[in-house]
Amino acid sequence: MADGEVSGFGSASKTQLENKLRSVLSSRKLLSKAGDSRFVLAAHLTVLEKEVLGTAPTKIAIRLQVNVAAGDGMTGTCYASNELTVKGVGQTEQAALTSAIRSISPSDKRVGMMLDEAVERIIGYYNEQGPSIISNAVMLAGQEKYEQAIYELSLIPMECTAYEAAQEAVQQVYVQYINREAGKALGKAKAQWAGNPTAENAETVMAMLMEIDPSADNYAEVEAFMSDVEKHVTKENAQKRADALAREKAERDLERERMQIGLEREKAQMAAIESIADAYAESLPDVVYYVDWW
After folding, report:
1. DSSP reduced 3-state for 101
2. Structure pTM?
3. Tens digits of per-residue pLDDT, 79-88?
């Protein structure tokens, strides 16, 4: 997040400075994977000096103090901070400000040292809070709030002592999530078929069934229902359609066999878990940070 006590510091400058902060985090692989983190990197601009240069055309030179800080934005606790001085020149005050912000280097050692200190404290936070985060996630899963549980567990960094336990928990929650979604999808497909058991509707029903994860507990029932649908289609002499459905099922079976290979399945599960966490994060309201001013 970014703000400043600078003339001309509007939404465009704010966006530019926030993008610069994201570049800093990205260069150190510290960007949050799932939505807004409670931890924030913030910057505040203050004018140290402004001068109108006697050039043709006239230009404005500006020197800014950039206070950069990182901490817990939800509690307002600053973990580490540092100050930078940057300069910019432009034909307008806005152009000079843009030039100054552009000169902030993501690889600045002072920012790096500040972030290292902040990261240590963030890891300390998760080392301390990890067990309670996991316990809360298990409770959420018991309430069938699987997406929220997966999101909470996914926030625990691998550098933390609770990471392995969080990964075990997220795998268990993911299995519960799969089983719930599979039950819902099968029920929906059966209702769709019962309302219109025709060859034309078979494609829609089979597409719904194809979305069910083969590792779901009810997959044997899913396959049995697929066979019933295929038989009905064949009885209606829609052989081409039946063949197409059979090919889709064969492809799905082949995919299922491939997914039984441990590494491939683990990669797919981790991608699915990350996708669920990202989707849940997208549904959350924007985090309100308390940074006054570190």
Report:
1. helix
2. 0.78
3. 999 999 999 9
